[in-house]
Write a structure and sequence with these properties.
heterodimer; A: 237 residues; alpha/beta; six-stranded mixed beta sheet; 10 helices; globular; B: 300 residues; mainly alpha; two-stranded antiparallel ribbon; two-stranded antiparallel sheet; 11 helices; binds adenosine-5'-triphosphate; binds magnesium ion
């Protein structure tokens, strides 16, 4: 079986900083794959390269089609959508307008409305706040907007960069449940970047561990969860 | 009292014109965070385009509504194309370089248009032909409301209304706001930044094209350097309202038009052009973000 998303030997430089030093990873259809690692390991950089925000060397393919030379705005059309680190909501637009921007590439009103309603069933809070400016929402609510906005793009592969960052444990659990739900119900493949390694491993099928720009370990999430070195470095005991 | 009301009418109609041009500065700033110094020279080219149209067809001899709208359309079209071309040729290649480079380029484009204008159109001022017959539309209690003031105001309000519809309700307009708030994320969602930027320049320059004809009818002397003073005032209006804010540009333009008119009416007309600099200094000291401006929200 071919992976839906595959990175091969990806390199990214920020000026003189060599942030990614040959990263390769795969995501298969219907998988939740997490990418964990310490601060500054290059997780966000990997996702930024995937979405075409930073220039990279190497190969990125979606369904065996190479996309590394495509500009960002064209990659969405191939089924790659991202909820970025720090959420990146449009602060002076309403919740609803933010979601509409997620559906920018579509013009089928009916389906867009259905997708929006689906997001509102996932996050009823957003429905209450639909006319509120996104910049005035709480951090957790903004995270819901960022995820919903990415869903509006009807991704085949959803990229989530630290969806739990700065959120209360209850909301974190809720967001992970939703990720699982999307994966099971919508058969969506998900590449999840997380600091919260324990949670990420619990909810994923497979995982990659990243250290200073390289993948150092990969395998089944369950195996990694019980791996001694992982426990010491990322799980706190 | 009558005199005062007359000044208010004049001030509002001039203010509407400042607002039209200020909107162009503020829209480009909102998207690219730089001042398009060539904006007012685009306006100058629009004035000359409609001047030559009028001269070619000798429109000034038979003022008529339809001529007015044709001139307005031509000026808008010429400015839109020019704005589009300037961005594509001069600014786009520099998009990733430091802001200062693009700023200096904008000054270069401005000088280029001014001197090319002198070369092509001549240095001497030209007389913009009357496209419409000026008449007293109605008078109340001794105040004459001139048709021209009403037309200027009417067209400006219409243009701003259309702009508002476009920016807040069209897909590309919403994309424009999204890009101005977070261009990286906008691109991730499938919005082509290049297209949005082109669209912004077309929109802003079109408004300058409309303003060009309106000013030509009110102050019929046009010359290749006419953009300089107008540009300064409209820019100050944009800063006064809060650069990047559309309602701010309109408010700033109106304040500018009204206060100039009051200075001319009650102080001394020679102070008129100095006023904008005075306003600029005062805002920069007391409220650099402008009346309706917000600090740019820092990304977390
Ligand atoms: N715009 C940039 N310019 C220069 N260096 C950068 C830039 N963005 C990231 N880096 C560097 O690249 C490296 C990888 O950063 P990245 O943001 O990908 O890490 P991360 O794994 O997402 O970390 P965190 O868990 O803290 O979010 C870091 O050393 C960082 O300092
Ligand atoms: Mg990160």
């Amino acid at each position: 079986m071919n992976p839906v998303l595959e990175l091969e030997d990806l390199h990214v430089h920020y000026g003189s900083i060599h942030a990614l030093k040959g990263v390769s990873l795969k995501v298969f259809a219907g998988e939740i794959v997490s990418l964990i690692g310490a601060n500054g390991a290059g997780k966000t950089t990997t996702l930024r390269a995937l979405s075409g925000i930073v220039p990279c060397r190497g190969r990125i393919s979606m369904n065996s089609k190479e996309i590394q030379t495509l500009p960002s705005h064209q990659r969405v059309r191939l089924g790659l959508a991202q909820s970025p680190e720090g959420r990146g909501v449009f602060p002076l637009m309403t919740v609803e307008e933010n979601l509409d921007m997620g559906a920018f590439i579509y013009s089928d009103k009916e389906q867009i409305n259905q997708d929006r309603d689906f997001c509102f069933t996932l996050f009823p809070r957003l429905k209450e706040r639909r006319s509120q400016l996104a910049g005035t929402l709480s951090g957790g609510e903004q995270q819901m907007v960022a995820i919903s906005r990415a869903l509006m793009a009807r991704p085949q592969v959803l990229l989530l960069d630290e969806p739990s960052l700065g959120l209360a444990p209850l909301i974190v659990a809720q967001i992970f449940e939703i990720v699982k739900h999307l994966n099971e119900l919508k058969k969506m493949s998900i590449l999840l970047v997380e600091q919260n390694a324990r949670m990420a491993l619990k909810f994923s099928h497979r995982a990659y561990v990243m250290e200073t720009g390289k993948i150092t370990l990969s395998g089944n999430a369950a195996d990694l969860l019980s791996d001694d070195s992982i426990r010491r470095s990322y799980l706190g005991h | 009292m009558n005199e005062f009301i007359q000044h208010i009418i004049n001030g509002i109609s001039m203010g509407a014109i400042y607002a039209l041009i200020a909107l162009g500065y503020t829209m480009v700033y909102g998207i690219l965070q730089f001042i398009n110094f060539a904006h007012a020279d685009i306006y100058m080219v629009g004035a000359f385009a409609s001047y030559y149209l009028a001269r070619f067809f000798q429109l000034g001899e038979h003022p008529h509504w339809s001529w007015f709208f044709i001139a307005l359309g031509l000026s808008t079209l010429v400015c839109a194309l020019l704005g589009f071309a300037i961005e594509k040729i001069a600014y786009r290649p520099l998009r990733k370089s430091p802001k200062l480079n693009i700023l200096i380029t904008a000054i270069g484009v401005s000088l280029f248009l001014e001197y090319a204008g002198q070369l092509l159109f001549g240095v001497d001022p030209k007389l913009f032909p009357p496209l419409l017959t000026e008449s007293v539309l109605f008078s109340i209690g001794g105040i004459n409301v001139m048709s021209l003031d009403v037309i200027i105001l009417g067209i400006s309000i219409l243009a701003m209304f259309v702009l508002h519809r476009v920016v807040y309700h069209s897909k590309l307009g919403k994309a424009m706001r999204a890009v101005s708030q977070n261009s990286t994320v906008a691109a991730m969602l499938g919005i082509s930044i290049d297209r949005v930027i082109s669209f912004t320049f077309i929109l802003g320059s079109s408004l300058a094209g409309i303003a060009a004809v309106l000013v030509g009818m009110r102050y019929p002397k046009i010359e290749p350097m006419m953009g300089m003073l107008m540009g300064t005032k409209a820019f100050v209006a944009a800063v006064l309202g809060g650069i990047g804010s559309l309602p701010g540009a309109v408010l700033g333009g109106l304040i500018m038009g009204l206060s100039e008119e009051m200075v001319v009416g009650y102080l001394q007309s020679t102070y008129r052009d100095a006023l904008s600099f005075g306003i600029l200094i005062v805002i920069l000291i007391f409220k650099p973000t402008g009346l309706l401006g917000t600090k740019r929200i820092e990304k977390v």
